[in-house]
Amino acid sequence: MAPTTIASAIPSLEALDRLGVRTDVYARIGVRTVLLGGDRSPARLTAWVDAIARVMPNAERVVLPGMDHGADLKHPEAVAGVVERLADDVLGG
Questions:
Q1: CA 49 – CA 47 distance, rounded (Å)
Q2: Which pTM does this prediction carry?
């Protein structure tokens, strides 16, 4: 992730830290969901996603090897593949 992108994200990350991971809210989401991350994502983001994955009843955790938090920008084809697979599964494609 570019330094300017990281700097602009810091206020959002700090706000999330203050709120904490509201797993009670995520536990009520029943639709099929893919929680996507990279194996090089920052530890606190990985911990948040893992906590959410444990409580969401229809969540699938996908970890993209060799990628970090900017996978959608750096490797859009990999992210698109995950989204396409989810759409095929949900829509019966």
A1: 6
A2: 0.72
